[in-house]
Amino acid sequence: MEPELGHLVQGKRIAVVGGAMGGLAFALALRKLSVERGVHPLPSIQVFERDVSAAERADRGYSLSVRADPGSMGLQVLQRLGRLEDCLKHNEPGQGMHISRHNFRPLLQIRGGEVPGLPVPRIRITRANLRQALLDGMEPEMIHFSKTVVNAESLPGGTTRLSFEDGSSGVYDYVVVADGANSRIRRALLPDQQLHYTGYIAVAGKTPPLKPLPPELLQGQWLMMGPKGVGAFVAVMNQAQAIYSLSFAAPKTRSAELQAILNNPQTQKEFFDNELPKLVDGFVEPLPALIRATDPSSLWAIAANDLMPFANDLPGVVFIGDAWHAMSPFAGNGANMAMRDGLELAEELLNPAHASLANAQEAFSERAAPRSRDAIKDSHRNLGMVHSQGWRQLVTAALIWVTSRIIDIVLWVKGSQGLGTASMMRLFRAAQDGSGSTKRVA
């Protein structure tokens, strides 16, 4: 007898720990696909989020690149979930990616060609707007804010008890862990799966509204190799503001020290006046002007940590997004990967070919783990590139420039559709590898 469609989730109590991109995409996908496929009774899906509301942390306001290339497919996920049109309303200017040295003279520009079935190949959107677009597609009773999960306990029969900070608890048939890189649930259930520090720290900030924005930023985001081992990333946040980060090699302990400095108004101002100019020294305008325009209170420190995907085989518990395969900011792909995880996990749970949750979980991991590893490896290449110095940086820049000329020639010969983003990225990775700039600092 054929298994009934949706038999693995019919009437099940499903908890999602974490209400960011991956958790929301999973909850929305499972509900939407279950309804479309006539699953009855529908699963009970509850998302537990520690933030007080969707607006919490929105003031930090950083933006994300959501892309359609085969290594990302975030736009395809949004389209499948019915949320793409809402996101397009918040698409910010500057869609291309530029690689340059310290001078805003592009060595390589990656814009992407047309993607069948999609209006654009990529968008830039604030984290707050992307999150809200996903929330708007959900039924309000599915999301619970101010609900922090502090522990998870496996019970006989494959269920899991979640304990909350407010003293309450609940038992669930299936738990999807999407609580980010510093996952409490991962620490509780898999204490050996710890983040790996890549050896780099970034100081990030945002500008107040600027009129007008520098024209370089309207062309797209910039990944830059500084003259003294400092890497820079610059992009628009919205129609009037820019975000940036300045990164450098440092001991792991420096990240916590920096964050403490930036949390104190007095030491924050001292860092802004004395240390930040040293980091930006050697970069040409408009980056120094963006730094000078920054409100010191907007600065924060980020340690570039990551975690390769691990065996995702706990009974009744599955990890997705950064909780499973944490990506440093240098991957530039965390939101795409998390949303794709959410959709693909929902698809596997509804696949009638799977006899058990364990089978569905294994199939999901086989789909998601390879692309996640590739994205993390790409971030290591980017780390090596932007922090290269001396002759190594010159060689890197030369090879990237040659790659750009090859792309120009192919586009000229074959037309604008002759080379997609994926092909451009393969050539770009080859240039990085050829330069020897991909050595990882740990």
UniProtKB/TrEMBL annotation:
InterPro entries the record matches: FAD-bd, FAD/NAD-bd_sf
- GO molecular function ontology, one term from the record: FAD binding
Query: What protein is this chain from?
Result: Lipid body protein
**In this record, what's one Pfam family?**
FAD_binding_3
Tell me the ranges covered by the FAD-binding domain, including all copies: 14-354
The source's domain of life comes to Eukaryota
Q: Which UniProt keywords apply?
A: FAD, Flavoprotein, Monooxygenase, Oxidoreductase
- Does Flavoprotein count among this protein's keywords? yes
